[in-house]
TrEMBL record:
Location(s) in or outside the cell: Cytoplasm; Nucleus
Species for this entry: Lodderomyces elongisporus (strain ATCC 11503 / CBS 2605 / JCM 1781 / NBRC 1676 / NRRL YB-4239) (Yeast)
Chain coiled-coil ranges: none
Transmembrane intervals: none
Keyword field contains Nucleus: yes
Any single GO CC term annotated in Swiss-Prot or TrEMBL for this entry: nucleus
Assigned keywords, A-Z: Cytoplasm, Nucleus
Keyword Cytoplasm: yes
Main location: cytoplasm
Pfam families reported for this sequence: HRI1
Protein name in UniProt: Protein HRI1
Family per record: Belongs to the HRI1 family.
Superkingdom assignment: Eukaryota
Length: 261
């Protein structure tokens, strides 16, 4: 179970760089949500909410920035350990594949990615191959990852996870129930202690959320799309057991709890 941020990405022979605020959350049972939002857009709040606060009557849907202008990449799926150093990432949601499908008008399957990990000081180095978000060409990448403390890390202050770590973390994972009211809908939502994030793919659109608990309430750090479609952390997660189903406030979607610790 880990909360990680990416320090840099390199597409050799180019130099390492980092233009995104990246948070990857992986549960004990290897369910993950990986959101990579451009630093210039973070935090990102739904234009609908901003307009409502200002009592403006605008067409909120037309005011949302295009997805590719806000996010580098969003992924959700399951990790499959292949060895002590190799992990296969099976993506059930891949925003890049969805965008390619929209652009081409043809179904594009999400790529699987195998990463090879090694120590890099106190951080981790990952080497693998995947499509570059910049040009869509599959190529070698090198990423540096840092584990974060899910209690003490905040949006303002980066706090590493201690070397010893702590495996006793509160964790929740949800998946969208099939055959809900919206067709071709899939999604995953995970919470690890004070952090939570999720992705929903609704046919040709994506909904993204990231939240942080400030000690009193959950603070929205990313609101892209209809974020009311995610489970409500204030009301929906108490006394849950694996297998329980919760509905969104408008009863449009049903989420099943697939993991709790």
């Amino acid at each position: 179970m880990v909360l990680s941020t990416r320090i840099s990405i390199q597409w050799p022979p180019s130099e390492p760089k980092e233009e995104a605020n990246v948070l990857a959350m992986t549960t004990a049972n290897n369910n993950y949500v990986d959101i990579r939002i451009f630093k210039s857009q973070y935090p990102y709040h739904l234009k609908a909410n901003e307009n409502k606060k200002q009592n403006e009557t605008l067409n909120d849907k037309t005011k949302e920035l295009p997805f590719r202008d806000v996010f580098e990449l969003c992924l959700a799926g399951t990790e499959v350990p292949l060895s002590e150093t190799k992990i296969k990432f099976v993506n059930t949601i891949n925003s890049q594949a969805l965008q390619e499908s929209i652009d081409s008008g043809q179904e594009v399957e999400a790529d699987e990615d195998v990463g090879t990990f090694s120590e890099f000081g106190l951080d981790r180095k990952e080497i693998g191959e995947m499509k570059s978000p910049e040009d869509g060409v599959r190529k070698l990448y090198v990423e540096i990852w840092r584990s974060l403390d899910p209690w003490r890390h905040t949006p303002q202050n980066e706090v590493r996870e201690s070397v010893e770590g702590n495996t006793d973390k509160d964790c929740l994972a949800f998946e969208l129930v099939e055959n809900t009211m919206k067709n071709k809908c899939k999604g995953k939502f995970v919470k690890i202690e004070n952090w939570a994030q999720g992705i929903i793919q609704l046919e040709s659109t994506i909904v993204v959320t990231r939240k942080w608990f400030d000690g009193e309430k959950w603070v929205n750090l990313i609101e892209y799309g209809e974020c009311e479609l995610f489970p409500n952390l204030e009301t929906d997660v108490h006394d849950l057991v694996v297998g329980n189903v919760v509905k969104t406030t408008n009863n449009e979607l049903s989420w099943i709890c697939i993991e709790k610790s």
